[in-house]
Specification:
By secondary structure, the chain is mainly alpha-helical. Helices cover about 80% and strands about 0% of the residues. It contains 4 helices and no strands. Helix 1 packs antiparallel against helix 2 and helix 1 packs parallel to helix 4.
Length: about 170
């Protein structure tokens, strides 16, 4: 019964990947772009206040809300996928624990066959097969966003310095 449930779960994950892989990729791309652009304009408003010299607090509050919203979007997209994958991968641990118990040779043979099959079959969500939707994706996005933000702000600083030097 456990074997049947595991294969049903793996089939559901594969079907989900086939049907929604493009949508997952598009959603991840949009989230990634929004997570870069929103903090960029947030930092621009902090670094270069308006002509009055005061920070626009309401604008910063809205931008902060959007930053949190986009991060939560990413987390809420990735966490269920990672949790499902984790639970599916726990099946092999359960089977290994069962193999340490006393049982008939026929049951042991079925469990050993099932463990070998588990090694070759992963139940993982992916975005069109380009990357897996698991917890390391969140840290990868955070690293990439930080890198792009630093680059964008450096370019903004060099543009401002060039403009001030020409006047």
């Amino acid at each position: 019964m456990l074997s049947d449930l595991h294969w049903m779960l793996c089939g559901a994950v594969q079907t989900t990947n086939a049907i929604f892989g493009g949508q997952l990729l598009a959603a991840m791309l949009c989230i990634f772009v929004h997570i870069i652009i929103t903090p960029y304009f947030f930092f621009l408003d902090i670094l270069y206040p308006s002509s009055t010299g005061f920070l626009n607090v309401s604008y910063l509050a809205v931008q902060s809300l959007w930053i949190v919203t986009h991060i939560m979007e990413l987390v809420l997209l990735v966490l269920p996928c990672a949790a499902t994958t984790h639970q599916a991968n726990k099946t092999s641990t359960i089977i290994c624990k069962l193999l340490n118990k006393e049982m008939s040779s026929e049951t042991r043979k079925q469990l050993e066959t099932f463990v070998i099959q588990l090694i070759h079959h992963n139940a993982e969500f992916s975005a069109c097969g380009l990357f897996r939707l698991n917890l390391p994706v969140i840290t990868s996005v955070a690293g990439a966003v930080t890198t792009y933000l630093v680059i964008l702000i450096q370019f903004q600083n060099s543009d401002t310095t060039t403009l001030l030097g020409n006047t």
